Amino acid sequence: MKSKLVLSVFMALACFTVNAVWAGSIKIDGSTTVLPIAQKITEAYMKENPGVSISVSGGGSGNGIKAIIDGTTDIANSSRFMKDEEVKAAMEKGSYPVPFAIAYDCIVPVVHPNNPLKDLTVDQLKGIYKGEINNWKTVGGPDSEIVVISRDTSSGTYEIWEEKIMKKERVYAGALLQASNGAVTQAVSKNKNAIGYLGIGYVDNSVKALTVNGIPGNAETALSGVFPVSRPLFMFTRGWPKGDIYKFINYVLHPQKGQKFVKEAGFVPLY
To answer: What is the DSSP letter of 215?
Structure first.
């Protein structure tokens, strides 16, 4: 009787082990801009593929890329392309990162809904974020001090803003740094003198989107590249994806599957 019980326990453990081995598991880390896209897609994918478990976290593009270099994540979400030194670091650790553009985005400057301003030029935005323009009156707004809100330096959104608006000059030290798009939205919505910038999928009624050089940030201007701060969004894998990761990336890129959720998340699909 005892031997039968031991055999039954052993067989149960063996079945559990086999199931654990064959159950797919994918870890995704990185950009908070890409986060809502990844969350919607993974939720749908796991419903269609109940044998696959996917975890998604958003600590910033820089953190996701570091994780793909170190091999602690399967997929890195990023709102910027990898730098040459990051690719080199990954190769030195035995993998070549493969980029997949999964959506398009605009980085839209936003202010409090009560701010009467509608448009800023690239030069005006640069002046504000350098700390050279510090009163809204200077750019046609109310006579009040500008509160500058920026993303932190681990953010891919920050790096694109630094490249396309700041022209590689640094955001001034008095800017209030936020760790996510959501935190920027909240900070701007609560301060009538604030300005920030967001991925287009995060713009809602709690803030007011500004045009840049008279151009609105939307799907059309993102796809054409006409909007001054438009960009692709990426998922990076460690080498060419295989198995469950390959199937998941194909799902993300599929026009009627993953790309449908890109649009639902408020971003711009590839097609």
So the answer is: B
pLDDT digits (tens, 9 = 90+) for 218-249: 999 999 999 999 999 999 999 999 999 999 99
CA-wise closest residue to 262 among 106, 155, 107, 102: 102
Asked if 2-104+233-264 and 105-224 have one fold, the answer is yes
Report the C-alpha gap between 208 and 89 in whole angstroms.
40
pLDDT digit string (tens) for 87-100? 999 999 998 999 99
The superfamily (CATH) of domain 105-224 is Periplasmic binding protein-like II (3.40.190.10)
Q: How far apart are CA 233 and CA 187, in angstroms?
A: 24
Domain range summary for the chain, segments of one domain joined by +: 2-104+233-264, 105-224
Tell me yes or no: is domain 2-104+233-264 CATH 3.10.105.10.
no
What per-residue string of b and e applies to 46-67 under the rule 16 or more CB within 10 Å gives b?
beeeeebebebbbbbbbbbbbb
CB 135 within 8 A of CB 146: yes
Helix 84-92 crosses helix 61-70 at what angle (to 10 degrees)? 30
User: Which residues fall within 8 angstroms of residue 219, CB to CB, at 6 or more apart?
Assistant: 104, 268
Contact (CB, 8 A) for 97 and 64: no
Contact 97, 75 (CB under 8 A): no
